[in-house]
Amino acid sequence: MRVARSVMGGAAACLSAAMLAGTAIAQEWKPAKNVDIVVASGAGGSSDRTARVVQKLLQANPAFPSISVTNRPGGGGTVAWTYLAQQPGDPHYIATFSPTMVTNQLLGVTKLRYTDFTPLSIILREYILVTVNADSPITSARDLVEAIRKDPTALSFAFSASPGNHNHVVIGMIYKAAGADPRKAKVVIQKSGGVGATSVMGGHIDVLVGAPANVLRHVQAGKMRAIGLSAPQRQPGAAAEVPTFRDQGIDAVFYSWRGFIGAKDLTAAQIAFWDDAFAKALRLDEWKQNVAKNAWAEDLRSSAETRKHLDSEQELIARMLGELGLLKR
Fold first, then answer.
1. Which of 87, 145, 280, 316 has the fewest beta carbons closer than 10 A?
2. What topology is assigned to 35-125+257-323 in CATH?
3. pTM of this structure
Protein backbone atom coordinates (compact mmCIF):
# COMPACT_ATOMS: atom_id res chain seq x y z
CA MET A 1 0.00 0.00 0.00
CA ARG A 2 2.81 2.34 0.94
CA VAL A 3 4.69 1.37 -2.19
CA ALA A 4 1.64 2.07 -4.34
CA ARG A 5 1.19 5.46 -2.73
CA SER A 6 4.87 6.20 -3.25
CA VAL A 7 4.67 5.27 -6.92
CA MET A 8 1.48 7.28 -7.37
CA GLY A 9 3.03 10.24 -5.59
CA GLY A 10 6.08 10.05 -7.83
CA ALA A 11 3.92 9.87 -10.92
CA ALA A 12 1.88 12.82 -9.74
CA ALA A 13 5.04 14.80 -9.11
CA CYS A 14 6.32 14.02 -12.60
CA LEU A 15 2.99 14.98 -14.12
CA SER A 16 2.93 18.22 -12.17
CA ALA A 17 6.49 19.02 -13.25
CA ALA A 18 5.59 18.30 -16.86
CA MET A 19 2.54 20.55 -16.66
CA LEU A 20 4.59 23.36 -15.14
CA ALA A 21 7.25 22.94 -17.82
CA GLY A 22 4.56 23.01 -20.50
CA THR A 23 3.08 26.17 -18.99
CA ALA A 24 6.50 27.82 -18.88
CA ILE A 25 7.14 26.94 -22.52
CA ALA A 26 3.70 28.22 -23.50
CA GLN A 27 4.30 31.52 -21.73
CA GLU A 28 7.57 32.01 -23.57
CA TRP A 29 5.90 32.57 -26.95
CA LYS A 30 6.58 35.96 -28.52
CA PRO A 31 6.58 37.36 -32.06
CA ALA A 32 9.37 36.07 -34.26
CA LYS A 33 8.91 38.71 -36.96
CA ASN A 34 7.12 41.96 -37.73
CA VAL A 35 3.55 42.26 -36.46
CA ASP A 36 1.14 43.87 -38.92
CA ILE A 37 -1.88 45.74 -37.56
CA VAL A 38 -4.48 45.67 -40.31
CA VAL A 39 -6.86 48.63 -40.18
CA ALA A 40 -10.42 47.94 -41.34
CA SER A 41 -10.90 51.46 -42.77
CA GLY A 42 -9.05 54.22 -44.58
CA ALA A 43 -6.49 56.59 -43.10
CA GLY A 44 -7.69 59.37 -40.82
CA GLY A 45 -10.65 57.55 -39.29
CA SER A 46 -11.25 56.30 -35.77
CA SER A 47 -10.02 52.76 -36.43
CA ASP A 48 -6.85 54.13 -38.02
CA ARG A 49 -6.26 56.46 -35.09
CA THR A 50 -6.75 53.65 -32.59
CA ALA A 51 -4.34 51.38 -34.48
CA ARG A 52 -1.59 53.99 -34.66
CA VAL A 53 -1.88 54.87 -30.98
CA VAL A 54 -1.67 51.18 -30.07
CA GLN A 55 1.22 50.62 -32.49
CA LYS A 56 3.27 53.23 -30.64
CA LEU A 57 2.39 51.81 -27.24
CA LEU A 58 3.19 48.23 -28.22
CA GLN A 59 6.55 49.30 -29.67
CA ALA A 60 7.61 50.19 -26.14
CA ASN A 61 7.46 46.44 -25.41
CA PRO A 62 10.84 44.78 -26.25
CA ALA A 63 9.02 41.53 -27.12
CA PHE A 64 8.09 43.01 -30.51
CA PRO A 65 10.76 43.00 -33.26
CA SER A 66 8.74 45.63 -35.17
CA ILE A 67 5.13 46.67 -35.77
CA SER A 68 3.55 48.04 -38.94
CA VAL A 69 0.10 49.44 -39.72
CA THR A 70 -1.61 48.63 -43.01
CA ASN A 71 -4.89 50.22 -44.10
CA ARG A 72 -7.18 47.88 -46.04
CA PRO A 73 -10.42 49.86 -46.50
CA GLY A 74 -13.51 48.64 -48.30
CA GLY A 75 -16.73 46.79 -47.72
CA GLY A 76 -17.27 48.30 -44.30
CA GLY A 77 -14.26 46.40 -42.97
CA THR A 78 -14.78 43.18 -44.88
CA VAL A 79 -11.69 43.69 -47.08
CA ALA A 80 -9.44 43.83 -44.02
CA TRP A 81 -11.18 40.97 -42.24
CA THR A 82 -11.12 38.77 -45.33
CA TYR A 83 -7.36 39.35 -45.54
CA LEU A 84 -6.96 38.42 -41.86
CA ALA A 85 -9.02 35.27 -42.38
CA GLN A 86 -6.39 34.18 -44.91
CA GLN A 87 -3.72 34.02 -42.16
CA PRO A 88 -5.04 31.16 -39.99
CA GLY A 89 -2.86 30.29 -37.01
CA ASP A 90 -0.50 33.24 -37.55
CA PRO A 91 -0.48 35.63 -34.55
CA HIS A 92 1.73 38.13 -36.38
CA TYR A 93 -1.39 39.62 -38.01
CA ILE A 94 -4.08 41.38 -36.01
CA ALA A 95 -6.87 43.69 -37.16
CA THR A 96 -8.98 46.46 -35.75
CA PHE A 97 -12.64 45.67 -35.23
CA SER A 98 -15.81 47.25 -33.87
CA PRO A 99 -19.57 46.55 -33.79
CA THR A 100 -19.47 46.82 -37.59
CA MET A 101 -18.25 43.22 -37.70
CA VAL A 102 -21.47 42.14 -36.00
CA THR A 103 -23.78 44.39 -38.02
CA ASN A 104 -22.18 43.41 -41.34
CA GLN A 105 -23.01 39.78 -40.74
CA LEU A 106 -26.53 40.50 -39.48
CA LEU A 107 -27.27 42.66 -42.52
CA GLY A 108 -25.88 40.13 -44.98
CA VAL A 109 -22.95 42.33 -46.05
CA THR A 110 -20.60 39.42 -45.33
CA LYS A 111 -20.71 35.85 -44.08
CA LEU A 112 -17.72 36.46 -41.81
CA ARG A 113 -18.55 36.38 -38.09
CA TYR A 114 -16.48 37.07 -35.01
CA THR A 115 -16.41 33.31 -34.46
CA ASP A 116 -14.28 33.03 -37.61
CA PHE A 117 -11.47 34.84 -35.78
CA THR A 118 -9.73 34.92 -32.41
CA PRO A 119 -11.05 37.87 -30.37
CA LEU A 120 -8.02 39.43 -28.66
CA SER A 121 -9.21 42.55 -26.88
CA ILE A 122 -11.59 45.42 -26.54
CA ILE A 123 -9.64 48.46 -25.37
CA LEU A 124 -12.11 51.36 -25.36
CA ARG A 125 -15.64 52.54 -25.83
CA GLU A 126 -16.44 55.54 -27.99
CA TYR A 127 -19.67 57.51 -27.84
CA ILE A 128 -21.13 58.88 -31.05
CA LEU A 129 -20.99 62.60 -31.82
CA VAL A 130 -23.39 64.36 -34.20
CA THR A 131 -22.06 67.53 -35.82
CA VAL A 132 -23.00 69.99 -38.57
CA ASN A 133 -21.30 72.75 -40.52
CA ALA A 134 -20.80 75.87 -38.40
CA ASP A 135 -23.11 77.77 -40.77
CA SER A 136 -25.96 75.27 -40.47
CA PRO A 137 -29.33 76.54 -39.21
CA ILE A 138 -29.37 73.51 -36.88
CA THR A 139 -27.93 74.63 -33.55
CA SER A 140 -29.11 71.90 -31.18
CA ALA A 141 -30.37 68.33 -31.01
CA ARG A 142 -33.90 69.70 -30.65
CA ASP A 143 -33.47 71.61 -33.93
CA LEU A 144 -32.31 68.41 -35.58
CA VAL A 145 -35.27 66.41 -34.31
CA GLU A 146 -37.69 69.13 -35.39
CA ALA A 147 -36.19 69.26 -38.89
CA ILE A 148 -36.58 65.49 -39.22
CA ARG A 149 -40.14 65.67 -37.92
CA LYS A 150 -41.05 68.21 -40.61
CA ASP A 151 -39.37 66.29 -43.44
CA PRO A 152 -37.53 62.99 -42.77
CA THR A 153 -35.83 63.19 -46.16
CA ALA A 154 -34.64 66.81 -46.04
CA LEU A 155 -31.24 66.20 -44.43
CA SER A 156 -28.33 64.04 -45.56
CA PHE A 157 -26.33 62.08 -42.95
CA ALA A 158 -22.72 61.02 -43.46
CA PHE A 159 -21.00 58.27 -41.50
CA SER A 160 -18.45 55.52 -42.00
CA ALA A 161 -18.04 52.86 -43.01
CA SER A 162 -20.96 50.43 -43.35
CA PRO A 163 -24.77 50.61 -43.24
CA GLY A 164 -26.38 49.39 -40.03
CA ASN A 165 -23.33 50.07 -37.85
CA HIS A 166 -23.23 51.95 -34.53
CA ASN A 167 -23.44 55.35 -36.28
CA HIS A 168 -26.48 54.22 -38.25
CA VAL A 169 -28.10 52.95 -35.05
CA VAL A 170 -27.78 56.42 -33.49
CA ILE A 171 -29.38 58.00 -36.57
CA GLY A 172 -32.23 55.54 -36.11
CA MET A 173 -32.59 56.55 -32.47
CA ILE A 174 -32.81 60.22 -33.44
CA TYR A 175 -35.47 59.43 -36.06
CA LYS A 176 -37.46 57.50 -33.48
CA ALA A 177 -37.26 60.49 -31.14
CA ALA A 178 -38.69 62.58 -33.98
CA GLY A 179 -41.48 60.06 -34.57
CA ALA A 180 -40.11 59.37 -38.07
CA ASP A 181 -39.29 56.17 -39.92
CA PRO A 182 -35.49 55.53 -39.75
CA ARG A 183 -35.64 53.95 -43.18
CA LYS A 184 -36.38 57.37 -44.67
CA ALA A 185 -33.04 58.80 -43.55
CA LYS A 186 -30.85 59.89 -46.44
CA VAL A 187 -27.50 58.32 -45.57
CA VAL A 188 -24.17 58.67 -47.37
CA ILE A 189 -21.52 56.10 -46.48
CA GLN A 190 -17.97 57.46 -46.20
CA LYS A 191 -14.62 55.65 -46.30
CA SER A 192 -13.65 57.19 -42.96
CA GLY A 193 -14.81 59.74 -40.44
CA GLY A 194 -12.17 62.16 -41.67
CA VAL A 195 -13.61 62.05 -45.18
CA GLY A 196 -17.08 62.60 -43.73
CA ALA A 197 -15.92 65.67 -41.83
CA THR A 198 -14.49 67.15 -45.02
CA SER A 199 -17.81 66.56 -46.79
CA VAL A 200 -19.77 68.37 -44.08
CA MET A 201 -17.36 71.30 -43.87
CA GLY A 202 -17.51 71.59 -47.64
CA GLY A 203 -21.31 71.84 -47.56
CA HIS A 204 -21.86 68.59 -49.46
CA ILE A 205 -23.50 66.76 -46.53
CA ASP A 206 -25.75 68.22 -43.82
CA VAL A 207 -24.95 66.10 -40.77
CA LEU A 208 -21.98 63.97 -39.69
CA VAL A 209 -22.41 61.08 -37.26
CA GLY A 210 -19.25 59.50 -35.92
CA ALA A 211 -16.32 59.50 -33.52
CA PRO A 212 -15.64 62.69 -31.52
CA ALA A 213 -11.91 62.56 -32.24
CA ASN A 214 -12.56 63.01 -35.97
CA VAL A 215 -14.21 66.39 -35.57
CA LEU A 216 -13.52 68.00 -32.18
CA ARG A 217 -10.59 69.98 -33.57
CA HIS A 218 -12.91 71.38 -36.27
CA VAL A 219 -15.51 72.23 -33.63
CA GLN A 220 -12.87 74.04 -31.56
CA ALA A 221 -11.69 75.88 -34.69
CA GLY A 222 -15.24 77.12 -35.34
CA LYS A 223 -15.66 75.16 -38.59
CA MET A 224 -18.21 72.68 -37.24
CA ARG A 225 -20.86 72.68 -34.51
CA ALA A 226 -21.41 69.88 -32.00
CA ILE A 227 -25.09 68.95 -31.75
CA GLY A 228 -25.10 66.07 -29.30
CA LEU A 229 -23.16 63.13 -27.86
CA SER A 230 -24.72 59.68 -27.38
CA ALA A 231 -23.35 59.28 -23.84
CA PRO A 232 -25.42 58.77 -20.67
CA GLN A 233 -23.79 61.85 -19.12
CA ARG A 234 -21.23 64.52 -19.96
CA GLN A 235 -17.80 63.07 -20.65
CA PRO A 236 -14.41 64.25 -19.34
CA GLY A 237 -11.51 65.20 -21.56
CA ALA A 238 -11.81 66.75 -25.00
CA ALA A 239 -15.61 66.36 -25.17
CA ALA A 240 -16.30 67.96 -21.78
CA GLU A 241 -18.15 70.91 -23.32
CA VAL A 242 -20.34 68.83 -25.64
CA PRO A 243 -23.95 68.35 -24.48
CA THR A 244 -25.40 64.86 -24.59
CA PHE A 245 -28.65 64.01 -26.34
CA ARG A 246 -30.01 63.08 -22.93
CA ASP A 247 -29.17 66.61 -21.70
CA GLN A 248 -31.51 67.84 -24.43
CA GLY A 249 -34.37 65.50 -23.62
CA ILE A 250 -33.65 62.96 -26.37
CA ASP A 251 -33.26 59.26 -25.64
CA ALA A 252 -30.21 58.38 -27.74
CA VAL A 253 -27.59 56.58 -25.65
CA PHE A 254 -25.28 54.19 -27.48
CA TYR A 255 -21.57 53.56 -27.89
CA SER A 256 -19.11 51.81 -30.14
CA TRP A 257 -16.35 49.63 -28.78
CA ARG A 258 -12.99 49.23 -30.45
CA GLY A 259 -10.46 46.48 -30.17
CA PHE A 260 -8.43 43.88 -32.00
CA ILE A 261 -8.92 40.39 -33.41
CA GLY A 262 -6.46 37.76 -34.55
CA ALA A 263 -6.73 35.07 -37.18
CA LYS A 264 -8.51 31.83 -36.40
CA ASP A 265 -6.81 28.97 -34.52
CA LEU A 266 -4.36 30.93 -32.40
CA THR A 267 -2.91 28.88 -29.55
CA ALA A 268 -3.47 29.50 -25.85
CA ALA A 269 0.13 30.71 -25.55
CA GLN A 270 -0.29 33.21 -28.35
CA ILE A 271 -3.55 34.52 -26.88
CA ALA A 272 -1.88 34.82 -23.47
CA PHE A 273 0.90 36.87 -25.04
CA TRP A 274 -1.57 39.30 -26.58
CA ASP A 275 -3.54 39.57 -23.32
CA ASP A 276 -0.35 40.56 -21.55
CA ALA A 277 0.83 42.90 -24.32
CA PHE A 278 -2.40 44.92 -24.37
CA ALA A 279 -2.54 45.08 -20.56
CA LYS A 280 1.02 46.46 -20.41
CA ALA A 281 0.40 48.95 -23.23
CA LEU A 282 -2.72 50.38 -21.61
CA ARG A 283 -0.94 50.97 -18.32
CA LEU A 284 1.34 53.57 -19.93
CA ASP A 285 0.78 57.26 -19.22
CA GLU A 286 0.70 57.96 -22.95
CA TRP A 287 -2.43 55.80 -23.24
CA LYS A 288 -4.19 57.87 -20.56
CA GLN A 289 -3.28 61.04 -22.45
CA ASN A 290 -4.72 59.65 -25.69
CA VAL A 291 -7.93 58.61 -23.94
CA ALA A 292 -8.48 62.20 -22.81
CA LYS A 293 -7.39 63.73 -26.14
CA ASN A 294 -9.66 61.53 -28.28
CA ALA A 295 -12.68 61.59 -25.93
CA TRP A 296 -12.44 57.81 -25.43
CA ALA A 297 -13.56 55.85 -22.39
CA GLU A 298 -11.28 53.07 -21.13
CA ASP A 299 -12.76 49.59 -21.36
CA LEU A 300 -9.98 46.99 -21.48
CA ARG A 301 -11.20 43.42 -21.87
CA SER A 302 -9.12 40.27 -22.23
CA SER A 303 -9.56 37.77 -25.05
CA ALA A 304 -11.97 35.65 -23.00
CA GLU A 305 -13.93 38.70 -21.85
CA THR A 306 -14.08 40.03 -25.41
CA ARG A 307 -15.53 36.75 -26.69
CA LYS A 308 -18.17 36.79 -23.97
CA HIS A 309 -19.04 40.42 -24.79
CA LEU A 310 -19.41 39.58 -28.48
CA ASP A 311 -21.84 36.79 -27.69
CA SER A 312 -24.10 39.26 -25.87
CA GLU A 313 -23.59 42.01 -28.47
CA GLN A 314 -24.80 39.71 -31.24
CA GLU A 315 -28.17 39.42 -29.51
CA LEU A 316 -28.39 43.10 -28.49
CA ILE A 317 -27.51 44.53 -31.91
CA ALA A 318 -29.82 42.13 -33.73
CA ARG A 319 -32.69 43.32 -31.54
CA MET A 320 -31.84 47.01 -32.02
CA LEU A 321 -31.51 46.71 -35.80
CA GLY A 322 -34.85 44.92 -35.90
CA GLU A 323 -36.52 47.64 -33.81
CA LEU A 324 -35.08 50.33 -36.10
CA GLY A 325 -36.33 48.61 -39.25
CA LEU A 326 -32.84 47.99 -40.61
CA LEU A 327 -33.03 44.21 -40.78
CA LYS A 328 -34.58 42.56 -43.79
CA ARG A 329 -37.55 40.38 -42.88
1. 316
2. D-Maltodextrin-Binding Protein; domain 2 (3.40.190)
3. 0.79
